[in-house]
């Protein structure tokens, strides 16, 4: 990752992550029929999030203070050094698992890492951008809660 990421690069990263999450959940919906509706709903939410990020790309830049941006980028670099960003970018491939427990655990990890990243984005952005990202994080928290309550039996 470069020393500094631009607003556009961060929004493009978030868009790619959401598209990967949509692919991941669509794959799970096709594989685990007992949870098809739930995984499809999660995929629909992720698609909507990607569309929101694309919309922000075309909007007016609203970023926070230099100090807050610096802290946010430091957090994102730390996530990258731990492999969390790469995991988020490639999570769609995880839908190949045939074990429901493994799939749900992977989905929980996806949502947790997404939330960590988006907390940093909330620090980086301000105004309308922050409001949109806040709404997305609320949905991601709901996803994590739903996944944590799942039974692993088909």
CATH architecture: Up-down Bundle
CATH class: Mainly Alpha
The major pleated sheet works out as:
none
- Tell me the CATH topology: Ferritin
Spans of 5+ residues with little confidence (pLDDT < 50)? Answer: none
Report how far apart the termini are: 41 Å
Total DSSP E strands: 0
Would you identify the CATH H-level superfamily? Ferritin, core subunit, four-helix bundle
Q: What's the alpha carbon Rg, rounded to whole Å?
A: 16 Å
Please tell me the overall pLDDT.
92
Q: Which strand-content bin applies to the residues? A: under 5%
**Order of helix and strand elements from N to C terminus:** HHHHHH
Question: Mind explaining what this structure looks like?
Answer:
This protein is an all-alpha fold. The protein has a single domain, classed as Ferritin. The radius of gyration is 16 Å and the shape is elongated. The model has no long low-confidence stretch (mean pLDDT 92).
